[in-house]
Design brief:
Layout lengths: L1 H12 L3 H18 L13 H6 L1 H23 L1 H25 L4 H17 L1
Length: 125
Amino acid sequence: MVWHYVTHYLTKYILALFSLFIIQIFIGFYFWYATSKKMILPVIFGIEKKAQEKQTLFKLLGSFLMASGGFLAINYFGFGAGLIYLSIVLMTIASLIILLIPLGVLNKTTFLITSIISVLIENLI
């Protein structure tokens, strides 16, 4: 019952809901990516060293962020459409992170610029 009021508040008063899902899933997957022992991570966001040192904490945080983003998507779109939306966003974000971070294309500024542009486009159009 309480969760119904929380999601009603989120959907009514927070306009940038789709961007919130995507940013939350991006950060959650990046936490998982940063804890990988096989990957040599360049320092992009400044948390990579801490993620290598405290792997269980960052894996839990990443899991929580991805699960809560998925739960919000399922709650907003419905079960079937939310799962499809979650899987499409997760595959897209994972592919972009795995491809663009080693190339050095994705960094703090590009992440902030694309996040701000997506929130503005979502709210102004």
